[in-house]
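Incident review: delayed structure delivery

Summary: a single-chain prediction request sat in the queue longer than the usual turnaround. Root cause was a stuck worker, restarted by the on-call engineer. No data loss occurred. The affected request and its eventual output are reproduced below so the record is complete for anyone auditing the incident later.

Affected input:
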Amino acid sequence: MNVLEWLRWSGKAIRTRWKMEGLLGVWGWDLDPFCSSKRIALISLKDEQEKCLGEGGSAGRLREVRILRSLFPPFLLDLYKLFISPLGGGKVGALMIARVTALTCQWLMGICTVNSVDLPDGTSCESGVFVERCKYLEESKCVGICVNTCKLPTQTFFKDYMGVPLLMEPNFTDYSCQFKFGVLPPQPEDDITLKEPCLEVCPIASRRRQVAQTQSTDVGQCPKA
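Output delivered after worker restart:
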């Protein structure tokens, strides 16, 4: 079974389990710290979100990066970063990941297509993925969950473990999201996504607005971002 076939099988298994349980979940290889062998773990996305947000942004993001790493055999990530990512000035690796992402991740994100993005060197490349309406964001209805359990961990994972920079630009108005493989994300202090206020449909947004009106303060950015 080659890598593409494995990813297709993995996506099919996830999609089937998701439908059976009625939950957002992922099948992955997880390393038990008290056992030398790997085990198959069904991880409830809702539980993971609660753990991440309960631990705080930084600890939660590290947890999500670990989960992303566990979905791949370690040697595959190392080989990709060593041999594929440097090809063509990084464009080959970015192109490949964009296509695999669009092919295998629609069960989680919804309809997505490969598109062209502008690269830092002034050229353009078909290394983008546009998600028309992200199911993950629509389901969570929370800026903090999007940022801490998806955007930032995913950007970190692809750059640090596959050698491909990634900038994700979620749109909190229409729930779309633009992936830009081959583009470095801005520094946290310059990332406007991290300064977004709570969504109107966020479960805690209305309560925060009531408190803000009572205390005559500004709601400000999402407390989980």
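Verification: The first strand starts at residue 25 and ends at 31.
Action items: add queue-age alerting; document worker restart procedure.
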